[in-house]
Structures are given as structure tokens and as C-alpha cells.
Amino acid sequence: MAVKGAREKKGLIMYQQPPKKNNNNGFIILGIIAGIVALILILPNFMNKSTTTTTATTYDDSYATPSVASQSHTTFYKNTATPYVAVNNNPWGYDFDNTGNLIYDEIPGNFCDYFKCASDFWSNNRNGYIVECMDGQYSRTGGYANVCEGHGGKKNTLYWH
After folding, report:
1. How many domains does the chain have?
2. How confident is the model over 110-126, as pLDDT tens digits?
3. Which is it for the CA torsion 119, 115, 69, 140, positive or negative?
4. Residue 137 lies inside a defined structural domain of this protein
């Protein structure tokens, strides 16, 4: 009687096991599960991104027309790119973020084109740092006891970065 998988060799009956299958199914399933877990952990980080919009307060500065004679000083300033929101969209990036530097001198000649300057802004006796007064005008009296005198007091300090 013949047995399946048996073969006869010189009077001996030998049993041969069927060839083993290459069983990589376990690794494939494990890889799929790991991929799904990774997606579950990573995907929420991409889906919950939020954007923040910052707006700057603007002022009507159409009346700020400084005369050429009042700007008789040499202008040196740094015009650097800044991640901060510039007040009145000024090209120098000046803002109210107190992580910057006080603005004492090297004030651009067209500063008052972007900011409502007090009438004595360019006066030689004004050598403090630039501040915004309560009435919305800008003065160079920062650091003095009479800061924004006649303008309702100090509202903000202007900085450059």
C-alpha cells in the first residue's frame, strides 16, 4: 500500500515532509499595523494646524508733512527685515514689542510720513526715545519726567529689532 509522501529506497520506506511555505505573512501584517498606528499618531498634528492673524493699529497720518528745514540732520538707520508687525506698515519694522531696542536717534527723515509726529518732534531739545502719546502723536520725550507733556501722557514705546 502506498502512503502519500512516502517513497521507497532500496527496500526502505522514507517519508518526505512537504516543502515549507515561505511564511512572511506575519511580517506583512505587523508592517501594516505599524503603519496604521503611525498614521493615527501623526495625522492629528497635521489636521489641527491653526493660523494666527495679527493686525496692526493704523492712524490717519495724511496731515503729517514735515518741512525740509525741520529735518536738517543726517539720517542713518537700519532697514532690516522683521517678523514683527510694523506699526502703520512702516518700512523699518518699528513696533510696540518691548523685546526690541529703543529708538533714540538715527531716525529716518521720512518718519513722520508713517507716524503722526508732534509739532516739536524734530526739535533739537528733544533727544529722548520715541513714544506714542495718548493723543496718538509721536514724541521724542521718552525717558524724561515730562514725557508726552501736553499730549495726555505716554501710551506706548516704539522699538526697532
Report:
1. 1
2. 999 999 999 999 987 77
3. positive
4. yes
